[in-house]
Amino acid sequence: MRTSPTSGNGAPVARAPSRRAGAQATGGCTGESATARTSLPGDARAPSAARRFVRTVLAGWNAHDVVTYDATLLVSELVTNAVVHAGTSVDLECRLDPARGGSLVVEVTDHHPTREFRARRPAPGERDGPAHCGRGLRLVAELAETWGTAYRRTDKTVWFHLPTSRPDRAGEPPALSDQALLRDLRVAENLGPGSCPEPPARPAADTGRHRALSFLAEASELLAGQFDEDTVASLAAQLAVPRLADWCAVWLDAESTPGTIHPAPRLSCVWHADERRTEPLRAALLHAPPLLPATGRPAPWPYRQDPPGPAPTGAPPGPALACRLVAGGRALGTLLLGRPAGPGLGDDVTGLTEDFARRLAQALASARQYTRQATISTILQRGLLPRGVAHIPGIDKAVVYEPCGDTAAGGDFYDVFAAGDDRWCFALGDVCGSGPEAAVTTGLVRPWLRLLAKEGYGVADVLTRLNRMLAEEAAEDAPGPAPRFLSLLHGQLVPRTDGGSGVRCTLASAGHPLPLLLRPDGSVRAVGAPQILLGVVEEVAYSSQTFDMAAGDTLLCVTDGVTERKAGNRLFDDADGLAATLTACTGLTAEGVARRIRDAVHAFAPTPPDDDLALLVLRAE
């Protein structure tokens, strides 16, 4: 069933009927009936292909330059939204609507109908609106005559109308010394989070300053939220073109150790308003970065090389600006802007370029610092995990380990290792807390556990001694960090010596979810007994339980990231949900059981897990 389309404020809007039978037409734009449509891949190629398609179609219809510019901009934003948020192929249709005086109607359709994006301004206190509030729809609301969204069973369409008889923006007061600059800065103002209509009596100079500040505010907001330097460079180039320049290139200096040879700058991004000229420009600039001072205050620098490639007929080459990107006294790269032909480079353009370069340099410095810290954290956290799991004769095993967030290791940890004398041990733990403190606790417990097990201590004795060692460690730290608590499941496997198949398992749980044992007949029961967390009480004597695992028996060990997975007010293990899921795994291999449980946990709620997820499956063969 098709629902009524809605406008940006949620009110119903009459939707122009789509003409599915139609072909690309040429001729005057107003008053004609014409339709052109295409299908685009659901990947990074789609926005560029969409822009080329719209420009080609509107050129054939002799559309006004302003209409072509606005339509290309809006389609690029909507197709990008569809690819990023829906992840499907995209259908794009352009047509002229005689019922509305020949106005242009554009429809962007994706095949993920359940997501809805509202275009509203952020509420007070919100940085950028709700999680699914795309900037593209805010831009549509600013530039389109009318727009709306139609939801169907299999797809979703965002459409907008643009009048084809739109006048030039000549009524806008001039700003700085460059008229083209202010025309393009109107787009940045529309994108800005605090944009508002201009007072009609505002002086030209004030309007110019307001638009320049809107552009710089938008640049600061977008660039500051990125943590990858190449992403920062790419965003900066797309912000600058065509608002500040016809084309843009960004080189990034490689980090080097003092006293060593400094590597050559790397061309990170090249962007041109005319996409046909991007690759020729990249080839020309690849080995020719501007030669600028390595240190000092960033300042514009003339660069006389014109970009290669086909230029518009009769268009003279324009000037260019190069600016060193410096933050905190360190050179990070170089920004190069190719300006359109026209008046010389005035102080207004130079000053705005310098301000933009300063913001870009600060964003690059932040991204590098984040990358440096994340790399160190990843290397350290990877050292907390075992390099591999030991082979256990007669046991089929599988591990699932998914730390929450962007870290390589979280508060959960696991281990499977040989303890000698035909003994193999396994462990699954969950440190209370997160961040560096949790990592420190993991770094203490896992090697201690291995050492105690290999020294011949039994399962219960290992937990008892670990608990005492954590208490002693906490006492030495006082009054420093908080006490270190963790839940731990520790077990030992030995081959049966009575001639039977399978293995003998001894395990103990310290505040950890009890493991489940699946029999070949589909029955499931919990094994072990609940006991107190490690590190809570200093003097605790832990106990263990021993049972036999015959051929076909499967032992499932999980952390609370599995049992306490939330969907609203429900938990995954409510009403023995984990046991029911495990029962359905009868006859599967260890890998099959692990995959089935992991998929069930992810499918339990529409949002990603908000806790580390770890599980260990041991199946007797």
In terms of topology, how is this protein built?
Layout: E1 35-40, H1 46-60, H2 65-86, E2 90-97, E3 103-110, H3 135-143, E4 146-151, E5 156-162, H4 179-191, H5 204-224, H6 229-240, E6 247-252, E7 266-272, H7 278-285, E8 300-302, E9 320-327, E10 330-338, H8 347-382, E11 395-402, E12 412-418, E13 424-431, H9 435-454, H10 459-477, E14 486-495, E15 503-510, E16 516-518, E17 524-526, E18 545-549, E19 554-558, H11 560-563, E20 566-567, E21 570-571, H12 577-583, H13 590-603, E22 613-620
Antiparallel strand pairs: 1-2, 2-3, 3-5, 4-5, 6-7, 6-10, 8-9, 9-10, 11-22, 12-13, 13-14, 14-15, 15-18, 16-17, 16-19, 19-22, 20-21
Helix pairs in contact: 1-2, 2-3, 4-5, 5-6, 5-8, 6-8, 9-10
What are the main properties of this structure?
621 residues; 5-stranded antiparallel β-sheet; disordered N terminus
Helix content percent band = 25-40%
Radius of gyration: 32 Å
**Number of helical regions:** 13
Give the strand tally: 22
Structure in a nutshell:
By secondary structure, this protein is an alpha+beta fold.
Summarize the structure in words.
The protein is 32% helix and 22% strand. It is built from 13 helices and 22 strands. The chain has helices spanning 46-60, 65-86, 135-143, 179-191, 204-224, 229-240, 278-285, 347-382, 435-454, 459-477, 560-563, 577-583, 590-603, and strands spanning 35-40, 90-97, 103-110, 146-151, 156-162, 247-252, 266-272, 300-302, 320-327, 330-338, 395-402, 412-418, 424-431, 486-495, 503-510, 516-518, 524-526, 545-549, 554-558, 566-567, 570-571, 613-620. It has a five-stranded antiparallel sheet, covered by helices on one side. It has a five-stranded antiparallel sheet with strand order 7-6-10-9-8, sandwiched between helices.
